[in-house]
Amino acid sequence: MLRIVVLIFYLYVVVSNEATFADGEILAALMATALFMPGMAVGLYYMRAESAGSNSLLQLAGKAENASGDGLGEFRQKYLAVRESLYAAAMFFCLLMVLVLAKERYLVSSNNLDYQLTLAVMMPVICLSVYEVVLQLVLKIKVGMQTSLPIEYDLWLSWLNFAILGILAVMHTFPYYDSDVGFAIFSAVVLAGILYAAGAYVVRYRKAHQGGGRA
Amino acid sequence: MIYSVAPLLFLALLLCRRKSYAWMIATALVIAIGALVVNVSNFNSKWNEFLLAQMGLSVLMIAGSMLRQTEAVTWRLFFRARLHGTADFSHAELIKLLGFLSHFRRTVMNVAVFICLLTACAAMMVEFIESGGSNVASTITLLDETPPPGYGTLDNSGMGKMPGAITADSPATPSALSAPRFRDSSLQFPKVLLPVFWPLLFGLVLSQFFLHVQDSSWFRALPMAELKRNPTELPSYIWFFPALSILLAWSERIFAYLAAF
Question: Which of B16, B37, B182, B216 would you mutate first to test chain A, the one with the most A CBs within 10 A?
């Protein structure tokens, strides 16, 4: 749900700021990231395709409905291999984008470089979120909507999505030429981190309390 | 030419995914995409020595860290497994070997990320000094990429003077000196991009190789539950890098803002 909100808001900010981008180059970079990132992730995944046996992820998902604990463990392992590959590719692209834009700045020709830098840094994260949602959706369709899969959500990705939502909000509120926007964006990242950590702790505490254990 | 390599490898991988050499094609695909993205075709051969030094440094760091933190017994286990396989290993030995391999992989990734960030910071610092952002009048460059004369120096001495206020005894200055300086970004970064990302790519491929070893035939005897895995096996601090890089990119303004208090 959070990812869908972030995606919609991202598209909204991109479209509403379209006039300040140089010749749609940011869209070209978005497309390049969206194409190359899954390619790299597929490569990284096939480098270790035999993790948890020779069955493919979809085959395992098909059998998940009436699988025993061991079969589910195999599926979980395979799914983790896929997700790790996706994350590794996304992190590579994220670092690449940041450094290219921080130094080269060829994506843009106007003066509000830092503003667009921040917008572009999110591209790999947005792509990562979209691909992960697609992967989960495909698995869900394969297994059947009623069956629940042993998939955990990832703490870091949710935090990152919260941070991006905060940055987008700041970018949308402030005009790009405001010199305080850098500080506001950095504060948004930190604030999202603190809020999210507090929320996660409260949820964990409550869950542990209900279960009768300790947090 | 270079643009068609990645799609071809991708197709090849999808067509022969259950073959034993799929691992090689997958490695080639990862390296090809990485090379495409960091723009290897624009590579200046002056960087060869720098890349070699980086690789040497990372090998030294990995070896040093591993020798410092692991026991000789585990190394012996590792070499025994390389030579004869793990068929005659006991359960405790397998667990020990598994811990050794994941430690090895984490060390490789940490060293790769460390060198990547170090190079990036050095490049940023040099660029920060050269672009006139600091008061240090410096001719520091990475690899003798000497800027053209007058490129790095910012001449503010004429500020605030009226252009018409020239008296008879004012010295005649050539107008070329006070010409506005335009930032030419093509001088610096493309040549730095490859050295910054090559160690990261190297570490990524190497650590993926260790995961591959860990997944494959060596540990068939262990049940799934004992191949303990975190949800993401990347070093967790890697997630702070986007925030860190935003801080770096904005550092000038953030420091100016803090200094205003």
Answer: B37
